[in-house]
Each structure stands twice: as C-alpha cells, then as structure tokens.
Here is the input.
Amino acid sequence: MYKLLPKSRSRQRRRRLPFNLKTLRLHREWLSPEWYSKRLSPSWQACIPLALLIVVGWSVAASAQAPTPPTVESVAESVGGLKVGLDTMWVMVAAMLVFFMNAGFCMLETGFCRQKNAVNVLAKNLIVFAFSSIAFWVVGWGLMFGNGNPFFGTEGLLFLSGADNSPLTGDAYQGAYKSIAWAGVPLLAKFFFQLVFAGTAATIVSGAVAERIKFIDFLIFSVLLVGIAYPITGHMVWGGGLLATSGFWDFAGSTVVHSVGGWAALMGAALLGPRIGKYNSDGSSNAFPGHNLSIATLGCLILWLGWFGFNPGSTMSVNPLIAHIAMTTNLGAAFGGAAATITAWIVLGKPDLSMVINGILAGLVAVTASCAFIPVWAAAVIGAIGGVIVVYAVLLLDKLKIDDPVGAIPVHLVNGLWGTLAVGLFATGPGVTKFGTELYAEGFGPKAGLFLGGGIAQLWTQFIGAALVGLITVVLSTLFWVALKSTLGIRVSPEEEVLGLDIGEHGMEAYAGFIKDPTDVHAGEPAAVQSTRGVAGSPY
Here is the structure.
C-alpha cells in the first residue's frame, strides 16, 4: 500500500474560493455593485460588462445569420451578375488592347516614313484618336447602332442619349440600340469597344497620305470619316441594316474597319498625288526608304498583340470561342508573314523587311472577318494567300503611280476584301464543333462556304456586301476630299514638302541636333523646288 502524503500548502491554497459553494444562495446583495467591489479585483469587475456585451452580440448575430432557403431568382441573379462582371472586364481589356494598337500604327508609320516628317506622322497618329472619340460620341455611335432604317440609325442619335437598359439582352432589352443588344455588358462598355474600332479606321488613312497632306485637312477628314462615313457602312453590317438582314457576315471588321479605311485612304492618295520625286518621267519609281525600321518592326509587334483584343474581343463575352479565335488570328499572321517573306525573296531577290511586316499585317487583316467561322487550317490558307497578295499589290500600286508610303492600301483594302470573300469560301456552317467548341449556331453566322460544301451562295453575298460598302465609302470619302481640296487645299506647298512637314507644319524636328538624312534628294524633283533649299545638295 502507498502511504497517503499530506496535502501541500500550495495545493490547499489553490483550492480556496472567495465564497463557500455549499452555502451558495441567491441573496439580494448580489445585485448590488458594492458586493462585487468587496470580493472581486478591479480587473475582474471590468470583465463583467464586457462578457455581457459579448453574449448579447453573439445572440444578435446568430439571429441575423439564420439561413434562409435560396430562391431560383436569387441564384440566377447572382450568377447573372457574375457573368456580366466577367464579360464587362473581358470587353474592356480587349478594348484597351485595341487602343494600344494606336501605338503600333504610330511606330509603324513613323518608321516607314522619312526622318524629316517624323513629327508630323507622330502628331497625326496621336491626335486622330482624340478627334475620333469626339466624333463617335457626338454622332457616330447613334448613326451606327441606333434603331433606324437600312442605311443609318435615327434613334439615340447624339451623345449616347437614347434609352437603354443594358446589360439586358434579347427580348428583355428595351432601348434605342437593339442591334447590339446581344452583348450582355453595360452601354459604356459597348461604346468604348466600338470606339477603338472606329479610331482604327481613321488611323489607316494616315499612312497612305503621309508626307504631303496638310495637318488640318487630315483632322477634318478624320472627323467626317468617323462621324459619318464609317458609321453609315457600319450600320449596314453591324447595326442591323441592309447587309445584316441579307446574310452578310464580317465578324471583326475586314470590311467594316479595314476596307472602309482602305477605300478612304485610296481616294486620298489618288487625289493628293505622289510625293515629289517619287516617280520619274519614264514611269520608274524611286525608293524612299523608311528612316527607322527598328520602330517600324516594334509597331508591327504591337499591332500583332493588339489583334488578340481586336478579334477575340469581338465575342464581347467570356466563352470558349475566344481560344479558337486567338488561334486562327495568330496562324493568319504567321502564314501571312512567312508567305510574304518567300514571295518577296523570289520576286525582289531579297527578303525585304518592309514586306515581312506588311505580310504579317496582311494575314491579320485577311483572317479578321472569318476568324470565328472557320476551321484552324483555313486560317493558315487565308493568311498565306494574304501574304502573297500584299507583295503584288504593293508592286501594282507603284505601276499605277499611287503613292502609299507605308503600304496601307495593300494591307487594309486589298486584304480586307480578300478576307471578306474568304468567309464565303471557308465558313464551316452553323452547328459545327471544332476541338469541343461549337463555333456558331444557326442565325449567328454565315452559311457553309464554297470549299466546305456550302455552294456559292455565301460567297456571292460576301461579294455584293463588300462591293456596296466600297461604293458608299468611295462616294462619301471622295466628296470629303474634294470639298477639302477646293476650300482649304489638301496638300502642303512644294517648299514645305521638300523641307519636311516637321518644320513646315509643326515648326520642330523629331531629331533635333542629329545629322540630317541626305538621301531625300531626287533627280526627279523640279528645279524650282530644288532652288528653295538653303544648302546645295542638302534636302533641308
């Protein structure tokens, strides 16, 4: 047996209590604060009200968080709100990528032009989006997407003033812009995405008329193009107008954006005439090399990146089709660049960098109309054909003595037309699944193309639509150019052109203090022009 040891004093001390539990009874003095003040230390006294507050707070919180059964409506609202948020974020990010394409155009055109005109090209590419934003907000959006007739919108015409309950879609939508009610994002998200497209159309013109147009005339023409001409043709295709109801399809703008900009550029370049010294009396042409192909190449890469907002962003929603569109877009660019490189190597004897750049852009433009409607392999074919076409289009323009310093017309007009027709050749038809994704359903895309068993019907529709858009754009842009030419005059003086638009139009130089490029002197320039130069043999 173990002998029980006496309890230690420390253990006895720990068991002592301030009162005897055996004789614990409810007394009236327990309700008195004095009773507690005599028996509890101040720190224990402070804990009593804090404990009461915690108990009461927990009770209230528990009653407030009592679960209520979810309803079908509440679940649908939460899921729908999340989808609207994700779609809006995607549309805005894609629009910002397209906006960044302005930097690409700016670098590309500046690099392809001569040193003495760098400031002018930079200024045009920078300010054109500002004026495009104003014109499209004031009237362009309403003309393009407002409810109206087959040719232009008439409701909500000015300042986005029409009634609108976006992001509701379909039959639930009530407002002035039903043609774009399929996009379940807020109105301002729709506007911003379409605005960057409109700005792209105006920027295309800048390159084709570079190095000889007056700055003020270009700004006025840009406002007229984005405010009137572009929205009218855009309404016919994307605004529920004539071509939209006739089965014409252009997913991301080979016609709506690129061909329209290309037609306007063609008319401007034709009315302006070639740069001084570009063509000789025997019909041969003189090369005007770009002054900085490094930034031109950077511009091409920026544009390539921006196209991943241009084409995939046109879904205006987050869905699996985005990956398919990104793939077709990239393959169009890749095969366009490769085909242009090989073609230029064969035809010109060297792999001309400017042709490589324009080949990539040609492939991107060519695949833009069909990127959501075609199988992946078709994007490679479309891009490759675009790369070949752009080389021969550049040479053809030179034969016609239409001076396009950056190749905007071969890239955007010629390949915009080719890309539009490609829809009628390679579209899969509705209900076709590729890599587990249904490309488009009945009523949301074109009929099957000629090479995929659909016959010639869709190809004919695409041809008529492209021709009609071209006719309207040519008429309107010619009216604008002729009006400007007869009033303000659209071309700078020969003296300003030889000196450089940087000095003549802006009074500054892009490379102040650097050695001037002496290669701008050409034998084809008139003697009167050559005599205006301050130093013999110097183009400045």
User: Anything to note?
Assistant: The CA atoms of residues 350 and 506 lie 37 Å apart. Strands lie at 433-434, 437-438.
